[in-house]
Specification:
Layout: E1 4-7, E2 12-16, H1 22-39, H2 44-60, H3 62-73, H4 77-101, H5 109-114, E3 119-126, E4 129-133, H6 141-152, E5 156-160, H7 166-178, E6 186-188, H8 196-201, E7 207-211, H9 214-227, E8 230-234, E9 239-243, H10 249-261, E10 271-277, H11 281-293, H12 313-328, E11 332-335, E12 352-355, E13 372-378, H13 381-389, E14 393-394, E15 398-400, H14 404-413, E16 420-421, E17 436-437, E18 440-441, H15 446-451, E19 454-461
Parallel strand pairs: 4-5, 4-7, 5-6, 7-8, 9-10, 9-15, 10-13, 12-13, 15-16
Antiparallel strand pairs: 1-2, 3-19, 8-18, 11-12, 14-17
Length: about 475
């Protein structure tokens, strides 16, 4: 895939970039290693000041970089500005809290004495240069939620971004440079996916994080495993959205529209499978379908647009194949199911609701990356949980019920990295984010995320640390 900026609203390629050659990649790897040896010795106050400056710079650039994001991957510009604001929030959150999150941990005095020590504690130390292989769908947020904790922990970062968002990738490197970070602390590698293995195998790279597809995650994990390097993977999702009889059905349907169509439906944590109790199925299906049908499709630079184009022609074709397969196997199309006649140029697809889904359909098993929802009618909570768990993915889940016993049952039995009640899944700096099964492993954000790329070092003293040992 060429490294280029192609406007998905028009299909026009605006700029093409030369991939970095092996010598340039080697120079950047060496800069990352050299920068780490110095940067790891800085204190939290210095790192926090740099991170706050980067956040300030990003906030000042909000309108400009939002338009860049929209141009490169088609996100409605209002959503792109919201993505910038979310990044700024996370950067300031880690600047404020990193020192506390990585504070030394002290076992009880009884356990210290039982170990034979006079003093013992755990100290979190950075690992080194971390390679981040990032996707196009949230081209700022996916990077910042890795970079903010990694840099605050004392690591350096190497970004291999998706090939269709090169302007955003280069902007991110420039952002941290403008904020005053030492040269080599954060660098973008303009390389193709075929070059990732060589970078990951380089001894100067300490660890890797990837957000993306299951095949990409499997590849990075196998290479890193061969090299015995730590990885964090956030992969695909086919998140269930359960609606039970005690729910506020009107509100559940309203939120369901947003949950399915955020980022033009191209989100790993977007709700995709709507599993509805038979007592409220008809009402929910009607309200949800009406809401999906009413969404405005159009130019993503228009402030009133709710649904922009998909990011690529291939992405739209993949979505069309899933819908056509479902239709062929008996699915009912309640709305959408085609390209909008009003937008013949660009890679648009109508918001779509499919009902009467069966296991014979590919869409029952595969992730839909676009504004297509599947509806399931279930008899009770047992069946709802069974359908929800009948997937290889386990990123997050949404449940609408006011019944406390049903909520506890879902927390116990839903196999996912998150369970969100009476609302939609959304990442937040204070909450750990990640999945189970083929949605990946490890966690981003919160204290869990910042400690993923740290060496939890046991420090043990047989004599008091301020008293010289006997010769």
């Amino acid at each position: 895939m060429p490294i280029s900026t192609t406007n998905p609203a028009t299909g026009e390629t605006l700029e093409t970039f030369e991939a970095m050659d092996a010598e340039e990649v080697d120079r950047r790897l060496e800069r990352a290693r050299t920068a780490f040896e110095e940067y790891r010795t800085t204190g939290f106050a210095e790192r926090a000041e740099l991170m706050r400056r980067a956040a300030d710079e990003l906030e000042k650039d909000q309108d400009e970089i939002a338009r860049t994001v929209t141009t490169e991957m088609g996100k409605p510009v209002a959503a792109a500005r919201a993505e910038v604001a979310k990044c700024v929030k996370a950067m300031r959150w880690y600047a404020e809290r990193a020192e506390g999150l990585l504070a030394d941990e002290h076992p009880s005095q009884g356990d210290v004495e039982d170990s034979g020590a006079t003093t013992a504690y755990v100290r979190y130390r950075p690992l080194g240069p971390v390679l981040a292989v990032m996707p196009w769908n949230f081209p700022l947020w996916q990077v910042i939620r890795f970079a903010a904790p990694a840099l605050m922990a004392g690591n350096t970062g190497l970004l291999k971004h998706a090939s269709n968002v090169p302007r955003t990738a280069l902007y991110l490197e420039e952002l941290f440079r403008r904020a005053g970070y030492p040269e080599g602390c954060f660098q973008t590698l303009l390389i193709g996916s075929g070059e990732v293995e060589g970078v990951l195998r380089d001894r100067r790279v300490a660890a890797a994080t990837l957000t993306g597809s299951e095949p990409a995650g499997r590849s990075v994990a196998s290479i890193a495993g061969d090299e015995i390097k730590k990885t964090v993977l956030e992969l695909g999702g086919s998140d269930p959205y359960l609606v039970l009889p005690s729910a506020d059905v009107a509100k559940a349907a309203e939120v369901a529209v947003a949950a399915r169509t955020q980022n033009n439906g191209q989100s790993c944590i977007a709700a995709k499978r709507f599993i509805v109790h038979r007592e409220v199925y008809e009402e929910f299906a009607r309200l949800f379908t009406d809401g999906m049908r009413a969404l405005k499709i159009g130019d993503p630079m228009d402030e009133s647009t709710r649904i922009g184009p998909l990011s690529s022609e291939r992405g739209r074709a993949d979505l069309e194949e899933l819908v056509e397969d479902a239709r062929k196997h008996g699915a009912t199309v309640l709305c959408g199911g085609r390209r909008p006649a009003s937008h013949p140029a660009g890679w648009f697809y109508e918001p779509t609701v499919l009902a009467d889904i069966t296991p014979a359909m590919r869409i029952h098993r595969e992730e839909t990356f676009g504004p297509v929802a599947t509806l399931y009618r279930v008899a009770d909570l047992d069946e709802a949980i069974e359908v929800a768990n009948d997937t290889d993915f386990g990123l997050s889940s949404n449940v609408w019920t006011r019944d406390r016993a049903e909520q506890e049952r879902c927390v116990r039995d839903l196999r996912a990295g998150g369970v969100y009640f009476n609302g939609m899944t959304a990442s937040h700096p204070a909450m750990p984010f990640g999945g189970v099964k083929r949605s990946g492993y490890g966690r981003e954000l919160s204290g869990h995320g910042i400690r993923e790329f740290c060496n939890a070092t046991t420090v043990w003293h047989g004599t008091p640390p301020d008293v010289p040992a006997a010769e």
